[in-house]
Amino acid sequence: xxxxxxxxxxxxxxxxxxxxxxxxxxxxxxxxxxxxxxxxxxxxxxxxxxxxxxxxxxxxxxxxxxxxxxxxxxxxxxxxxxxxxxxxxxxxxxxxxxxxxxxxxxxxxxxxxxxxxxxxxxxxxxxxxxxxxxxxxxxxxxxxxxxxxxxxxxxxxxxxxxxxxxxxxxxxxxxxxxxxxxxxxxxxxxxxxxxxxxxxxxxxxxxxxxxxxxxxxxxxxxxxxxxxxxxxxxxxxxxxxxxxxxxxxxxxxxxxxxxxxxxxxxxxxxxxxxxxxxxxxxxxxxxxxxxxxxxxxxxxxxxxxxxxxxxxxxxxxxxxxxxxxxxxxxxxxxxxx
Length: 337
Prior knowledge:
Largest sheet: 6 strands, parallel
Strand content: 15-25%
Order of helices and strands: HEHEEHEHEEHHHHHEEHHEEHEEH
Radius of gyration: 20 Å
CATH class of the largest domain: Alpha Beta
Low-confidence stretches: none
Strand order of the largest sheet: 3-2-1-4-5-6
CATH topology of the largest domain: inorganic pyrophosphatase (n-terminal core)
CATH architecture of the largest domain: Alpha-Beta Complex
CATH superfamily of the largest domain: inorganic pyrophosphatase (n-terminal core)
Number of domains: 2
């Protein structure tokens, strides 16, 4: 269970900042996943409930993937473009980044840099160095939404646990634990899930829409990517590459790659799975999964300062063409065996 007492001083500073705040920014790295969007929307809801004088804006570098549009308050998630259509220049009193460092927040990073009070809420074991004003980080939390939930129950927030808030928290739990299959699943996470279910929201719908439902384009993309998979080191390493041409071929979007890494990883005999995704001609994103022998968070950070995550699930952004990234990462990965 997350021990909020260890963050006592940080929470006091957070309360003071929010009492004096009029405009609040919440962001997260890159394209939102189930944990980051759940954490952002739950944090927005609890701030507005406790500090109704504030205006709270959730702004991400990329638009919210379609799979999450069913979530309560999903229509409140903006991009820099949609924010600018409705508001004047960015001017915030306090800014939050959740579920990863601000180094991966794209265009929103410059907004965050200008804010006086910068808050970091995360559960990843490895992230970049940055002069945050307030840090609430617990790598033992199974998901960032678990950390946000326990923050919501402190004397500062006293958030009521109603169905909308509960499903935002729940989505993060099921996303980061893989429906409570991954090794980061704790008894406390299961107890929290049970508490959330008691509010009566449709947990089957949240799980299926947020985790399992796919477009036909995404099925085609997954099939092609899995067909191209290769192994090395006697089957201990498996990898595949997903290019922009493949996205265009199947009229797919970047979010359609979600879940492919897990299919690679669940291949018999595999110890490490690697998926390389082409972002542009000179940019690639990598996703890594490990059975535990290799700490992929530290491995990802050894490749670039834009790498990090958990010991068994991590990722990185590389400034190089996709084929160069494939050669570079595989060479480094093989050296670890």
